[in-house]
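Workshop exercise sheet. Pairs work together: one partner reads the sequence aloud, the other fills in the structure field after running the prediction. Swap roles for the next sheet.
Pair: D.N. / O.F.
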Amino acid sequence: MVITLLSDFGDVYPASMKGVIFGIDPGANIVDITHSVPRHDIRAGAFILMTTAKYFPSGTVHIAVVDPGVGTKRRAIAVRALSLGGTHYFVGPDNGLLIPAAREIGNIEVYEISNRELFRENISGTFHGRDIFAPVGAHISKGLRIEKAGGRILDFKDISFGAGKKMDGSLHGEVIYIDTFGNIITNIPGGSVDFQSGNELEIDKIRVLFSSSYGFCKKGVPLALVGSHGFLEIAVNMGNAAKILRKKQGDVIIINFI
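Structure field:
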């Protein structure tokens, strides 16, 4: 079975999680989504997981850990996401990180992880990724029924990215993620965008061209496009849109028609 890992751990701590997983399920196929989520940034981690998990095959277990509340009373959860295309499992903290990705796949069932028999014997107060989430995910990958992890809950924490909308002849949205290229991903769904390539737009008095891809604009030219994730994105060909527009995650973004 496939097990994916996502965290803000950097390049050292994930190895311990992999060692625990292989100790339980030596045949696991582990795929690193990323361990470079900005530190403690639950919303960024949730967005990355939401836009990647759905491409994995049915039966995949996604272990995701962006967990500034580790060691506190926050719960550990396991989620089953069901759709016509199959079933995915998510394991991690109850802080909203897992839910958008699980909902993207289908109907969800959420269980509190309380069965300590599934944990490592010695549980660190600072590394539940290794001592709780990795072993639970490995056991589910090997065939453990998710109900064995604990009881079902309905009061789990969720994250909503909202949805941009048209107002007064403009598109109003929010910056939900800035990628490593400095591209600004908004919460404006691509399906609500009716621009044509070459249309001129304006953001904070900066002229922006709508295009189908980056390379149709000259180097350094700001552009808007529907990105591969399905949301309206603001970019600069061979440049950094976030720096030019001085935008950060959570900022409001207003796109005016010229």
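Discussion prompt: The chain has a mean pLDDT of 96. What would you look at next?
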